[in-house]
Specification:
The complex is a heterodimer of chains A (396) and B (374). Chain A is of the alpha+beta class. Chain A is 47% helix and 14% strand. The N and C termini of chain A lie far apart (50 Å). In chain B, strands 1, 2, 3, 4, 5, 6, 7 and 8 form an eight-stranded mixed beta sheet that branches. Chain B contains eleven helices and ten strands. In chain B, helix 7 packs antiparallel against helix 10 and helix 8 packs antiparallel against helix 9. Chain B starts with 6 loop residues before the first helix and ends in a 5-residue tail after the last helix. Chain B: This is Acyl-CoA/acyl-ACP dehydrogenase.
Amino acid sequence: MNEINDFKASVRAWLEANCPPSMRTPPPEGEMVLAGSRLTFTQPDQQLWFERMRDQGWFAPDWPREYGGGGLDARQTRVLESELARLKCRAPMVNLGIWMIGPVLLEFGSDEQKARHLPGMARGEVAWCQGFSEPGAGSDLAGLSCRAEHDGDDYVVNGSKIWTSYADRSDWMYALVRTDPTAGKHAGISMLLIDMASAGVSTRPIELISGKSHFCQVFFDNVRVPVANLVGAEGEGWMLAKALLAHERRAMSKFGDNNVPGVDFLDLARRLVAQADPDSRAVLTDRVAACAMDEHAYKLMLERTHEAGGAGQDVSALVATFKYLHSEQNKTRYRTLTALAGTDALGWEGEGYDEELLKLARQWLNAYTYTVAGGTSEIQLNILARRVLGLPDSGG
Amino acid sequence: MRFVLNEDQNMLRESAADFFAGRLPLAHQRKLKAQGLTHDADAWREMAELGWNAIALPEAVGGVPFDRSGVALVLAEAARTLAATPLFASNLLAAGLIEAAGSDAQKRDWLPALAAGDKLGALALDERARHDPTRIATRATREADGWRINGAKCAVVDGEFADLLLVVARDADTQDTLLFVLDAHTAGVSCQPLSQIDAQPMARVRLDGVKADEAALLARGAAADAALNTVLERARIALAAQLQAISRVLFDTTLAYLKQREQYGRKIGAFQALQHRMARLFTRIELAESCVQAAVAALDTDADLALPAALAKGMAGETALAVADEAVQLHGGIGVTDELDVGLFLKRVQVLEALLGDSVYQRARYARLIGVVA
């Protein structure tokens, strides 16, 4: 007990001394640092924070030291995370390597893969992207068709991946590919590590209804990938993807809301309701109150989940509602603000519009992305109905 | 801990669940109704003997030193079998007001009998179909030796057999709020029992030139308003807990039906259209549950109850209405028959929803509390 308390005190002291005050606020849009070979910083504090955390090995605090991690045990890692949260420290970077594929390689990767890839991830030197969705495989991910044909010491990859975040700035991709078209839908899938600098890889950024985005489409035209880059065995891709998505949920919960800057809903709503014509005001007030109550209830539910989970209760049913509720509530909130702001909410860019309302328009449009990405709302409801409520799987 | 019950709370809840399942199961409510009864007087006696009428009242007047959340926990268990109890009107409202607003002498005079369950109390507040504690037309006129009260009250829960009536009036001269505690058998007090959709006790009360002496005045002006507000917030939280308990029962019942009922050669729960409706309801229920738990926990603190109460009753009410509607609809034909219990819960939900401000009222209040409207 004393040992962990000492550790906590030393972590707290280190963070107090080393996390610059400017890194203790949510980052404004476009100010997230992306791990990778093309690392750039928009201000000196960012770089300082990045380098100090890197040198502590705290990008990947619970990884073994031999792979560049911090070598902390599970309890120490939790202490570090809670201290980071307490001080409201920003995540020093976005790093899908550490959050997603890293833990999978630690568990399932070959010694060679671990030695080659993990240290770079842990130092934030390599940017990783995720190649899962395809134009023809969205919600039904297992229907993917990107083909990897065995040819000598290589696989030859042909096909396309879509909704790949930051693909155009990534050094490597972990991808699900079809290695055996004759095997079952799930059994024919494998996981490959693909060097994005390989000949035949091209990327195209996707413009969304909200404007520029970090999403890309990636094309593979006879891309040669060494067989040594296969994770696990052929046909294990689906199992690995499921293991990886479990890390995604953990990563999202770690770095989630804290990092999303938004307009202040209530502040803006109060201002706009007061400006509305008297007849509309009552209806608008009702909508605002409904949004605020939903948000309030959601926050209480998070607190309840935390408390009940800590007391040893099974909170998996509650957790299964989060993605659906959060993304849907978000959309309704922005929809309500957009209505409140009338024609002032219609600005796309430039002069003549209030800056906060310009941001609102983009965030409203961006909110549509989140009820789709990461499992659509309909998929979330399927999961709730089948896994939580135990209703029969009708295959939809 | 706001969201995890302590050992005492768990024990009380379990013993309440046992009591209602064993002594007042839903089938028993059907029998009472068939006999034209709104409640089981013997069972009410037994509840008093269990000490429930005395929860959170001062020990000096026979109270039981259990946190006030206990009343909400017992009421929620009662709601699961649709059992009527004296706790809402007698403990939370009547005794609560005397405790909050009365002098030491008034507490000594009235509370021991309420705590013991020897007497029952009720609150005569609302005068309009939609709850509005600010619009009180009942007037009390000062006379040489006390007050003369005239007015008409609706929605008096347990009014028909209350021994004590807590009456909210206005001073005819100053318009100050006045809180009276009256013997229900005083001349000029008349009570009209109502036959309500849920078959639970409800009455209208008339006050025609009712004489009250100074000892009957609990509080006036700001003190009366503050005491009334506090007690109403507690009662709203208890109503929210009951609504939430019914949402659970109806949801579980409906889910079980979807897993059992077959049409087109398969369980109707396999249809995605129904699955998504149930999954959405589930998310609403868990949101409401979080609000209700937070509000019930707030009953045991000194926190201002207005916001948690408005949130809890608003969310729990709206959710329970939605769950009840879906429960009837998804049961299909059997859902609209009196034979199925679902309809009984639907009616009770509508009653609980309407009492002390429906979900629209709570939402409007919430908007004011967070400053959306000035």
